[in-house]
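Ex. 9. Protein: NFACT RNA binding domain-containing protein.
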Amino acid sequence: MVIDGMSMHFLTEEINAEIQNSRIAKIVQLTDSLFVFTLRLRKGQNQGDKRLLIDVAKNNPALYLTDNNFQSPATAPNFCMFLRKYLANGEIINITCPDFERYAVLNIVAKNSYFDSVPYKLIIELMGRYSNLILTENDIIKDCLYHVDSRHNSKRELLPLRPYVAPPQQKGKRNLLSFRNAAEIAAYLEEDWALNATSTVKKFILQKFTALSPLSAEKICLSASLPPATLLSTLSVPASSRILAASLAEFSEIIKSKAVIPTVVQKNSAANYLSILPLPQFPQTEQKSFVTFSAAIIAARQEASFNSAFSQKQQYLLRTVDKLLDKFQQKLLTYAEEMRTSYDFVLDKIKGNLILAAVPQVNAFLQHKFSAATEALNVCNYYQAALPSDLNEEMLTFNLPENEQLKLRDILQEPEITVLLRGDKNAQDNAKLYYKNYTRKKNRLLFVQKLISGMQANCRYLGELKINLLNAESLADLSILQAELQAAGSNDRSSNEKENFKAENNQPGKPQTHKRLLMARKLKLTEANKKGKQNGNNPNGNKLPRKNDFISFSSSDNYRILIGRNAKQNDYLSLKLAASDDIWLHLQKAPGCHVLILTNHCPEAELPPRTLAEAAALCAWYSRSEKERRLFQQTNLESVTVDYCQAGKLKKAPGAKAGLVYYNNYKSLRVQAQSPEMLKLTAAPANGED
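Predicted structure tokens for NFACT RNA binding domain-containing protein:
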């Protein structure tokens, strides 16, 4: 929260009217910079305790009254104990803001250890990174929250037993309230107009007057119909100075009459600005007015706290997803290399066959070789004419790339093929080694292809999860997505594929029978069902999605369009909620949200093309991040392909992650991503059964 001098002045006046002559009942320090003073009001004042919250955080300072209760920490920090020692049960005389500066002085009278009344000043400086909380007695610092010595500030030391020096006033500036009329302001402006000819109007106002923020200076310029960035050299002195002086005088009258409207302006996601009036240079969507300054600060801090917590959690989850994607991509590269080394399994079988076809030649070659070292021998190639059909089928079954098939066929064009033979084995044993390599490589291909399939499914799932994270709107959405991410990590199908493959296909000792495999699988299902019952009706222990949870719109032809917010909603929307003749849409070969058009049993041929086009445009819009959406609004980007089919044609693979489905017999159309506002669609409550 950025608080300027004007806002600080009216804020302290507002607080002073509430807490004057009250007593300090309790002092609590919640964080390193956040203090709460519980104040007991006098008779005749509003009944009930008030709480004065003081936050001198360097990035978000604040001062306001609140009725909320705060839980005291078990152990009070040292500075909190120090304040309790001197200020406990003290009477607040008043709170002031000297010279419209960005600090407040809380005047307190408290009893010392001799029961004498001692005047103290608690100085609350809310100046960004220079914010501080200082207790003084007779203008001598007793202690302060942040100590500042001469190494950090040569003009103003903030240390115990040093005289307190107020923040220095800006030289050459005057208070706007010190002028009686617009004529005096115009004369004051014309004094330095020529010297500041290269300055802009906004900068000139800030150089001449105190307590004005850059946003207030912009408002004054716009009220005078002068663009803030206009150079003084381009303006005529008598006419322009009078117009500007009239705007300044009008602003001064508003301050004197106290006709202020506490307003919070959200200039960007990182900071909120407190203003005494609405600012015309910002749209109404970026500012909000309040009855009191305390209410304005509370609302701004809550929003800032939400934005901070939301942004931190979102960035953490995005980093986690990116790390997993990088990890999975690296695994895919490793698997691709393993497959590349196994593509020659057919050649191993051919070499084994050729060795058995040339047993006399091979045995004669190995007759005087007893070493285990390998020896090369050229044997006659009987596969020059054509490759047997069984080997052709195997190559097609294992999806050998065309370049690998061509490489194999080029080798088979030679009249002789070189085989490597071990000298300590005969022809039959050497052929068995090649057959063993053939079986091992074929099994490796089968296994690695399963791993790649699972890893690609994981990448698609994480891609959709990342889109959902970027489009999340609340902490509740992020919590659901975090639970999905944790479940994906604990139930990673690809990470357990190796163990499952070994358990079912490579059991050491006695091989598993079909009956034993069925019993093991039945036991796993029983344990999963028990776990699901403990957590509720579904394995994750969460309630099933309802229609009201989805993003919902009514098309121009009055058809309901539902859009899932996360993988769980996508799964429920596509496979549970959808009727068989509803129309389902998704980006083609890309991660994105699931979109459903509720046709109310209308035949697909009678569905209006406009409704289908609107649903496809929404599918493209909500399948992109907020940053990409802004690009869609600013530039005319190329269209994307959206697939659609009847929901009854959707299938889900056993064990597939939430939100991953496959479909056939679909149609496609090219659309451009468009927001609901661009399509002139209004959000509709998804009434109906849950």
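Check your answer against this statement. The two ends are 42 Å apart (CA to CA).
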